[in-house]
Amino acid sequence: MFELSKQFRFDAAHTLDRSIDTESSRRIHGHSYRAEVTVRGRPDPATGMIVDLGLLERTMADARDALDHRFLDEINDLGPATMENLSRWIWNRLLPEVGNLFKVSVYRDSSGEACSYWGEEVAA
Fold first, then answer.
1. Using an 8 Å Cβ cutoff, are 115 and 104 in contact?
2. What is the 3-state secondary structure (H, E, C) of the chain?
3. pLDDT for position 47
4. Which residue in 10, 13, 69, 124 is a FRET match for 83, CA 20 to 30 A apart?
């Protein structure tokens, strides 16, 4: 079994309604983010790859372009612009093209924060 990861960076602004540090969070402010997309699987015997990096890069560029230098509050299907929602949003954006998606992580390196999403659990 192999895991392959690729990253992209984006800068975006948002507001956030929260109970701690409310004043600064409610004002428009921005962050620099780093997203890491991980796929998992066995290499295709014919290509030797678990995913074509060209496909992964193209799909990730589409997600990046939708987030970079945007006001996240205006992205209809994102919800509140938290790292949790960003990681799930990126997952949902990539999944139709990247079927062996394993994990999406969003980092705010300047503050040492990160959130990872593995998809929805399927009830047994």
1. no
2. CEEEEEEEEEEEEECCCCCCCHHHHHCCEEEEEEEEEEEEECCCCCCCCCCCHHHHHHHHHHHHHHHCCEEHHHCCCCCCCCHHHHHHHHHHHHCCCCCCEEEEEEEEHHHCEEEEECCCCCCC
3. 95
4. 124
Q: Is the pLDDT of residue 123 over 60?
A: no
Distance from C-alpha of 117 to C-alpha of 105, rounded to nearest angstrom: 6
pTM for this model (two decimals): 0.91
CB atoms within 10 A of CB 37: 25
Residue-wise pLDDT for 23-68, tens only, equals 666 778 889 999 999 999 999 999 999 999 999 999 999 999 999 9
Asked if residue 13 lies in contact with residue 29, where contact means CB atoms within 8 angstroms, the answer is: yes
Q: At what angle do helices 53-67 and 83-94 cross, to 10 degrees?
A: 140
Q: How far apart are CA 113 and CA 115, in angstroms?
A: 7
